[in-house]
Specification:
Layout lengths: L10 E5 L4 H12 L3 E6 L6 H17 L6 E5 L7 H12 L7 E4 L14 H28 L6 E6 L15 H18 L4 E8 L8 H4 L2 H10 L12 H8 L1 H4 L6 E4 L9
Helix pairs in contact: 1-2, 1-8, 3-4, 4-5
């Protein structure tokens, strides 16, 4: 993405920001001058992802003096205290009293047959994808409405094309993504009076760690590519530009309660 400093001087929090879509949005924000505090689970297996993100952020800063700064904090979004802690951490890390952007991205997706789906997987998916989004968005909104001067900000919920269509192996997942979309619509109504914009990004088939195994299967990948008008599955970096658009007041200042599909045209070609 070209460097245009569209988010110069802004401060953002992003949950699940060390891998996949969250990582791509983090890097896009940094390139546009935004300082970003990312949340992660702090698992040993994820340490290489965190290390490489820190390294990439430092490299970006070395080649672009106007790039934003990166900070990171361990925490589980299913814990209601994680959202407020991340907000406070971001403000302290970047020596500011203003939170401008919140991206609620953390999520899980484990494919499972409906008849065999156990209650533990269902509960974990709902707690992470929907409860976690609610807690983080509420914490960000409280800062933006009550402590930002003047009030205002942009909140982006990472939903999914799965909010609009069914999936046989995703009966526990698709309702949570529909919930994130609905959360953005309702918070847009609740928070407009504080000049807080709330929008949803709906990625289509984006190759991340969640579906990498499926897309490494040549037959499955070719089937998916055949359904997508642009002829390819998405990459995490495809989400960066749309997120910057929704975060930037100059570009999307009159956009709230909206849903933006980033799917290569898949939805309109479903048959």
């Amino acid at each position: 993405m070209p460097v245009a400093n569209l988010l110069a001087g802004k401060t953002a929090i992003i949950t699940g920001g060390t891998t996949g879509i969250g990582r791509a949005i983090t890097l896009a924000f940094l390139a546009q001058g935004c300082s970003v505090a990312v949340n992660h689970l702090g698992l040993e297996k994820d340490q290489p992802h965190l290390d490489s993100l820190v390294s990439e952020a430092e490299q970006l800063k070395s080649t672009n003096a106007s790039a934003g700064s990166l900070a990171h904090l361990q925490g589980d979004v299913t814990d209601p205290s994680t959202g407020p802690a991340l907000v406070s951490f971001a403000l302290k890390s970047f020596n500011t009293d203003r939170l401008d952007i919140c991206v609620s991205n953390a999520g899980i997706c484990t494919f499972a047959e409906f008849l065999d789906l156990d209650s533990a997987l269902f509960a974990k998916t709902v707690r992470t994808n929907l409860d976690g989004a609610f807690y983080v968005v509420q914490a960000a909104a409280r800062q933006m409405a009550r402590h930002n001067s003047p009030p205002g900000g942009s909140i982006i919920g990472i939903s999914s094309i799965s909010a609009l269509v069914g999936g046989a192996g995703q009966t526990h997942y698709t309702p949570t993504k529909a919930g994130v979309l609905s959360l953005m619509q309702s918070t847009a109504c609740a928070l407009g009076k504080y000049n807080i914009r709330c929008n949803a990004l709906l990625p289509g088939t984006i190759k991340t760690q969640l579906n990498e195994e499926d897309l490494n299967d040549d037959e499955k990948r070719k089937y998916m590519e055949g359904r997508i008008p642009l002829g390819r599955t998405g990459e995490p970096k495809d989400m960066g530009g749309p997120a910057v658009f929704l975060a930037c007041d100059e570009l999307s200042g009159y956009v709230t309660g909206a849903q933006l599909l980033v799917d290569g045209g898949l939805f309109v070609n479903l048959q």
